[in-house]
Design a protein that fits this description.
- A hairpin with a 2-residue loop joins strand 1 and strand 2.
- The chain is mostly helical.
- 46% of the residues lie in helices and 4% in strands.
- The chain has a two-stranded antiparallel sheet with strand order 1-2.
- Helix 3 runs antiparallel to helix 4 and helix 4 packs antiparallel against helix 5.
- The protein has five helices and two strands; from the N terminus they run ββααααα.
- The chain is globular, with a radius of gyration of 18 Å.
């Protein structure tokens, strides 16, 4: 079969998207491989040509206040996958001393994404991991409310949602379960 495999009768080449060869892979303007398939509100890929949700631009450098505000708006809109990308930008571009905070917040957003997709195990695990990371960062940094984020309340929200997901085993509504980053419980 030489680099090709059959999946339900459809020929695929080297693990790339159906009908696309390695040479024809989606690429960004710098030539890096990027999947150009549209995505739904939870970041799941849709078929080429389908109407998806606008993606978050990658690599945007924002100040901490703008990061928190933009991520909160995305969480409120039921787009935790997109909020994770905003936190990831802060994690990658922010000061070294804050990377643990932003990484933990990104993990919380991905945990909510998985819970909303129905991935019980992954959702609960990432929610707890993110809560622990944010709480650990706050304890070491001596900042219980970085940029107005109520770390204690956020950790409680994450653990509560992890328990709900594990007990119910059902998909959760990402918008209804969106955390209030600056306090006040769920949205």
């Amino acid at each position: 079969m030489s680099g090709k495999r059959s999946t339900n009768g459809a020929e695929r080449t080297n693990g790339t998207s159906e009908g696309r060869s390695v040479e024809g892979r989606d690429r960004d303007t710098q030539g890096r491989a990027r999947n150009a398939r549209p995505r739904d509100g939870l970041g799941r890929p849709l078929p080429y040509g389908a109407e998806g949700v606008e993606r978050q631009p990658e690599g945007v450098v924002r100040g901490p206040e703008d990061t928190v505000a933009e991520a909160q708006a995305l969480l409120d809109a039921g787009k935790p996958f997109h909020a994770h990308e905003v936190f990831e930008d802060a994690w990658k571009s922010g000061p070294d001393g804050e990377r643990g905070l932003w990484r933990g917040l990104a993990q919380l957003a991905v945990g909510l994404t998985h819970a909303a997709r129905g991935n019980v195990t992954g959702g609960a695990r990432l929610l707890r991991r993110g809560a622990g990371a944010v709480e650990e960062w706050a304890a070491v940094a001596g900042e219980p409310r970085p940029y107005g984020i109520d770390v204690s309340e956020l950790g409680g929200w994450a653990r509560e949602l992890a328990g709900v997901v594990e007990r119910g085993g059902a998909v959760v509504d990402a918008g209804a379960w969106a955390p209030r980053l600056r306090g006040g419980g769920a949205a």
